[in-house]
Amino acid sequence: MLPTSQGSVRLFRFAGINVWLHWSWVLIALWALTGRQGAYSTPLWNLAEYIALFAIVLLHEFGHSLACRQVGGQSDQIVLWPLGGVAYVNAPHRPGAQLWSIAAGPLVNVVLIPVLMALHFLLVRTGAGADSPDFWNCFVTVQYINIALLVFNILPVYPLDGGQILRSLLWFKLGPRRSLYYASAIGLVGAAGLVLLALYLGSLWMGVLVAFLGSNSWRAFQAAKAAGR
Question: What global pTM score does this model have?
């Protein structure tokens, strides 16, 4: 089940889009900050790293919302929660519009890669932050976070962006129902693979995320089957 604005605090409104922060994000933030103690000489850099993660996720979700509007759809709400962010989009019921609305999110991360690399190069050339190992540790970590979010999001596991992109591409050939059927089936296989990875890493957070992905893939699979009866 996706989060809603219930139990959330509205942070701001931009371009007609309300941005909400779910209360559970704060708990996860505290857990994440304490979990990386020792990474920096002061906890302020842990906070800076988490704020950067927050900003990257937010930009990603705005990519979805603004792209949806561009193709004639509606989007007026973004909710940030522990498993990332959710842009509530209602794109026109055609594959091209759905594809662009979904793909625009990961494309934001793609654009950020050369932007951050160029900034990295500029900082090195100017010597900015040369006397602060914490600054460079944080800056490089943020670049890796952006790439990791991109790679994870484009996995073909429904309802991740990759799974929804796959569904949109299949839609061109198979139609809305069969495309959902095959994309969600592939998502179930992918979720099973992620279960093994979560067990190998011993990651509770990944286990929760995989459970969320698997349950959503299963519901989509069942809905597609029911629609075909």
Answer: 0.87
